[in-house]
Amino acid sequence: MRGNTATIGITAFAKDQLGDVVYLELPEVGATVTRGQPFGVVESTKAVSELFAPVSGKVTKINKSLVDAPEGINDDPHEKGWMIEIEMSSPADANELLSAKQYEELLAAEH
User: Fold this and answer.
1) Nearest by Cα to 59 from 38, 39, 97, 85
2) Does domain 5-110 have CATH number 3.20.20.70?
């Protein structure tokens, strides 16, 4: 997150659970997304899954290279595999998200 801009994608754990990503559907720039609601679809060799927005706001940028070559998610989900950027309508929503460390601790506790 930078200011009130959030970069959204999936975690390496989610990518591993999905398997190889073969298709990605993302919203258009200018679309509004709502926290907890689907904003796109990812299809892998194992499943088709909806992508849920962690925050609400307006889509300001999409990673067009992933739409044409969704396998980029498989290679680097945290850096090159980002999906959309959102100008958050309520930046305080981000305070309710887990940090990377908290997420890793949660996964470790579950496995």
Assistant:
1) 85
2) no
> Which strands, in side-by-side order, build the sheet including 5-8?
5-8, 84-88, 57-62, 32-33
3-state SS class at 109: helix
Domain ranges of the chain: 5-110
Read off the pTM.
0.88
Angle at 20 between CA 6 and CA 107, to 5 degrees: 60
Q: How far apart (Å, rounded) are the C-alpha atoms in residues 85 and 71?
A: 19
Distance in angstroms (rounded) separating the CA atoms of residues 36 and 53: 5
Instruction: Tell me the pLDDT band of 75, cut-offs 50, 70 and 90.
Output: confident
